[in-house]
Amino acid sequence: MHLSLKAGERVYINGAVVRVDRKVALELMNDATFLLEGHVLQAEEATTPLRQLYFAAQTILIAPAQAGPARALYARIEEGILAATTEPAIRDGLAAAHALVEAGRAFEALKLIRSLYPAEAAVLGPSTPLPDMPPAARIPPGALVAPGRSGPRRRPPLRARPAPSSDKA
User: Fold this and answer.
1) Which of its termini does the chain have fewer beta carbons within 10 Å around, N or C?
2) Helix (H) and strand (E) counts for the chain?
3) Cα gap 40→130, rounded to integer Å
4) Could you tell me the CA-to-CA distances from 8 to 5, 37, 43, 80 in Å, in that order?
């Protein structure tokens, strides 16, 4: 996997926060879990049930020391969402995301959860209050904090690109 970062950008790799001081390309030579800074959601940005679920899944990925509590939180939030909606797209998406998290593929689960945001917005509507979720399913302030990032995002999300082929015919 080939990652290109600009000066000052961060990437979370296997629970470590890596910040670069200049433009750099990283090539991950083996299996590693990583999340680009542009995809990191802060706790205060987890304003809807699916964003709270995303935050819990993200914590599983980037903070291995908090993976146990994050998995329990993920399960509670998922249960609350399933109790509050009958929307087939959301329910099917949650089932698929759950399977990915259980299989240790949190990165793919994050992408899937992000893809459900429009369906959630359609259900909630622009001025509809959030559905009542059990208190245990809500993220308590400061319970899980994404490490190493504060303030607004400075740049759009980065894209990982495949490593160049070594086949030169």
Assistant:
1) C
2) 5, 5
3) 22
4) 8, 10, 22, 38
Per-residue pLDDT at 39:
83
CB 155 within 8 A of CB 9: yes
Give the C-alpha separation, 96 to 93, whole Å.
5
Going through the chain in order, the beta strands assigned E by DSSP cover: 2-5, 10-13, 16-19, 24-27, 34-36
Instruction: Give, for 42, the enclosing helix (H) or strand (E).
Output: none
Cβ atoms 40, 58 nearer than 8 A: yes
Question: What amino acid occupies position 135?
Answer: P
* More confident of the two residues 144 and 120: 120
pTM of the model: 0.69
Q: What's the whole-number mean pLDDT along residues 142-155? A: 42
